[in-house]
Structures are given as C-alpha cells and as structure tokens.
From TrEMBL:
Source superkingdom: Bacteria
Species assigned in the record: Nibricoccus aquaticus
GO molecular function, one term: nucleotide binding
InterPro entries from the UniProt entry: Gfo/Idh/MocA-like_OxRdtase_N, Gfo/Idh/MocA_oxidoreduct, GFO_IDH_MocA-like_dom, NAD(P)-bd_dom_sf
Full protein name: Gfo/Idh/MocA-like oxidoreductase N-terminal domain-containing protein
Domain GFO/IDH/MocA-like oxidoreductase: 140-259
Domain Gfo/Idh/MocA-like oxidoreductase N-terminal: 9-126
Length: 346
C-alpha cells in the first residue's frame, strides 16, 4: 500500500478515458490514485459514468480545473486541440497523464512540453513512457553484453482484427488520423524503435482500405531511414486475426546478432500480456548463442506508479522530452508522406 493517501484524479474525455479510468479503479494503482471526478461535453455520458461510480461530474474543463481538491488530471480527449488543453491544465497547476501521440504539430508539442518544464509540471504518456519498459532495458543490456555492434535493420508489427463503420469521429478524418493503423496502434512499435535505433531521417508510407467502413485506412506500412543508416519498417493493421492481438512484435538486426520480441505465437489473446525476448548472436568464429527473457509486461500500459513518483517527487524523473518529440516529428512526416505518396524528411 502507498504510505500516503491516494491522489485525487479527474478524467477528461469519457470515450477511451472511461476504459482507462475503470482500469485504474480496479487495478493495482488504485492505492495511488482515486478517481474523484470526470469531465465530458456529453452530459448524458457524463451523468451515467459519474452516477455509476459516485464521483463529481463537470461539463466544463474550467470547472474541473477550478476544483482545488484535484491535483492530477487524466486527459483522454481526441487529438484535436490536445496541446491547448494540456496548456490549460498545467497552467492551472495540475499534473497530467495523457495518451499517445498527444499532438500532430511538432511546434505545438515542443511548446507545451517546454512550458511544463518551465512550470515544474509533469506530463506523462503511455507511449513513449517516462522510463523505458523492462524489455527495452533488457534489449539495451544485451546489446552491450554481447557486443552486437551497429543497428542494421528493424521491423515492428501491431495487428488486430476490426471491422469498423464510419461514425463521424476523428477516426474518420485522414488529417486527424493519418495512416490510421500506424497512428492508432503502430505508435507503440514506433516509440520502441526510436528508443532502440535512434532518430529517423526520412519516412515513406503505404496504406490501403480492405475491410473498413471508415474513409481512413485499415492497413498501413511505414518505412523508416534512421540517421545512423539503419533501415526499418512498421506494419500496423486492423485486418489480421491470427490470435496474436497487439503483440507489438519486434525484429532487431545488428552487426553480430538478432533480437526478437513477441514474434513466436502463444495462446489466443495472450500475446499482449507478456514480453518475450529471444537473442541469437555469434561468439568467436562460428559459435551461435541463444538466450531468452520474459516479463509480465504490457506494451503501452499506463505507468501509474512512475507517474505517482514524479508527481509526489519521490524520485527525480525527467520527462522523456526528446523521445516524445521524436515520435511526434515522425508522425507529422508520416502524415505528409501519406498525402504526398513521396519520401518525406523528418
């Protein structure tokens, strides 16, 4: 249990935000944060959610921000105007947990992160998280231990089976949801690859519509040229049901070895619940070595305990400023590349 009372948190946006709030209420971080309020422009949705859980409801964000009993906000609105909302929240003296990617405009993203640093406020995302996941740390440790050398190429895959219909939300707008599967779920693979392989120089995009009823893509591929010369690709799709949902499969090739994450199949629906790594490398002239590693860790989960440490200043935790900006900049270039069908510089 936490030695101090749970921090009160108010949730803004009861679409996906309702799911995150419910998971927080029932999960292990419920001793760190207590959901005491919600805010949504839909009064019916707001009344239903707040009545169900016995919490305060606000239609106006300003009213929630004026509630001095709430030091922390979970922001789960759509991407439209996210930076402006973040600025209002941190200028009201509150810290924020939000979701990926919080902004399509790199200039607006940099401005809000810089303002958070200036004010001493905390902004955390689920991807990239404030601290590297355990599996990323293990990959980096293997790179050093086995002297894998320069990165050569990488591949990420995020697959699920959706059959969506147009509903007028931001998911239907190519400007707000570029290369939709990449923007919505491929971002997890992108965040990992940026942490492991470094900055991206240029991108290419291919996308298609196979089964979706939305005007945006349901099948997309992102090509990456890293500044260090490594090549990469990410395939994100709403079209595949192979039982390995949201696995965030990674294949990482180096000069002297290869690392796989969640590449090999497991039971239906279990792929996203653990991180499974396998290393294949060479020692000496012709001796192949292999190692495996596993943890019960979900890619892209909300690191509430790390967020709590940052808010309460139990630990000095810097926002991953450059990692967040790297992701936003690649997403912006990806959006341009989908429109132009050309290679775009990041």
């Amino acid at each position: 249990m936490s030695p101090c009372p749970p921090l009160a948190i108010g949730f803004v946006g009861l679409g996906f935000g309702a799911t995150v709030a419910q998971a927080l209420m029932k999960g292990p971080a419920c001793d760190l944060f207590r959901v005491t309020a919600a805010c949504d422009a839909d009064p019916v949705k707001l009344q239903d959610f707040c009545g169900r859980y016995g919490i305060k409801g606000y239609v106006s964000l300003d009213d929630l921000l004026g509630d001095e009993s709430i030091p922390v906000v979970g922001l789960f609105s759509g991407p439209v105007g996210r930076s402006e909302l973040l600025l209002r929240i941190i200028r009201a003296g509150k810290d924020v947990m939000t979701t990926k990617p919080f902004e399509l405009d790199p200039v607006a993203a940099r401005d809000v992160l810089a303002e958070a640093q200036r004010l001493g406020r905390v902004i955390h995302l689920n991807s990239p998280p404030a601290e590297p996941p355990q599996y990323v740390r293990q990959i980096l440790a293997w790179q050093r231990e086995f002297d894998l050398g320069r990165p050569v190429s990488c591949r990420g895959e995020m697959l699920i089976s959706y059959r969506e219909k147009a509903d007028g939300r931001w998911f239907d707008d190519p400007k707000l949801c570029p290369a939709a599967p990449l923007f919505r779920i491929g971002i997890y693979s992108l965040s990992d690859l940026l942490r492991l392989f470094g900055r991206v120089q240029s991108v290419q995009v291919m996308s298609s519509r196979l089964f979706t009823g939305r005007p945006t893509a349901d099948n997309a591929e992102l090509g990456l040229l890293f500044e260090n010369g490594a090549l990469g690709s990410i395939h994100a799709s709403f079209c595949v049901d192979d039982g390995q949902h949201y696995a965030n499969s990674l294949t990482l090739h180096y000069e002297r070895g290869t690392i796989h994450r969640n590449v090999f199949p497991v039971a239906y629906g279990e792929a996203e619940r653990t991180s499974r790594l396998r290393l294949t490398a060479v020692r000496g002239k012709d001796h192949v070595i292999s190692q495996e590693w596993q943890s019960a860790e979900v890619s892209g989960e909300y690191a509430w305990s790390v967020f709590h440490d940052a808010v309460t200043k139990r630990r000095v935790l810097e926002m991953p400023f450059e990692e967040i900006m790297g992701t936003v900049e690649v997403v912006a270039a990806m959006a341009r590349a989908e429109r132009s069908q050309k290679t775009e510089l990041v």
